[in-house]
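Do me a favour: review this protein, sequence plus structure tokens, and tell me how the chain folds. Record follows.
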Amino acid sequence: MDLTFQTPEGRFNYRVCAIIIHDNHILAMHDECSPYYYLPGGRVQLQETAEKAVLREIKEELGIDAEIIRPLWFHQGFFTEDVSSERFHEVCLYFLVDISGSDVLSRGNKFVLNERNHRHTFEWLEFHRLKEAYFYPVFLKERIFHLPDTLTLMTEYES
């Protein structure tokens, strides 16, 4: 069971995201429902650690095994989703992830994979391109240039 629930005031999510970097590019994705880019990852399941969840999500979305380098951010986000207009209170752990033992880099700058009934388009976005890109989370557009050495707490209110 995913750790998410709906209330009259909005939805709560507990998520994990993978920060996958290569040569000043970050691996981002979008699908048929989302016009914006976002990071690989997803909801944590009940009785699942965040570490296991991010590795499971990478396996489901990219079809690879990866390794966690370190956690980067514990992020509390308050926002309204662009497509559904649903209000969210989201807690997300961001992990720096190593995919060097996989074939992801050989798939090209842009590639498409299917996960169940979803079609994901992955793209390596140059760090400087994030500022103008339709990309979430917003804080990463600046913070990608200065990854923390230790787990850092962040809170972000988006309008």
Q: What stands out?
A: Strands lie at 4-7, 10-22, 25-31, 41-43, 67-80, 87-98, 110-115, 118-126, 152-157.
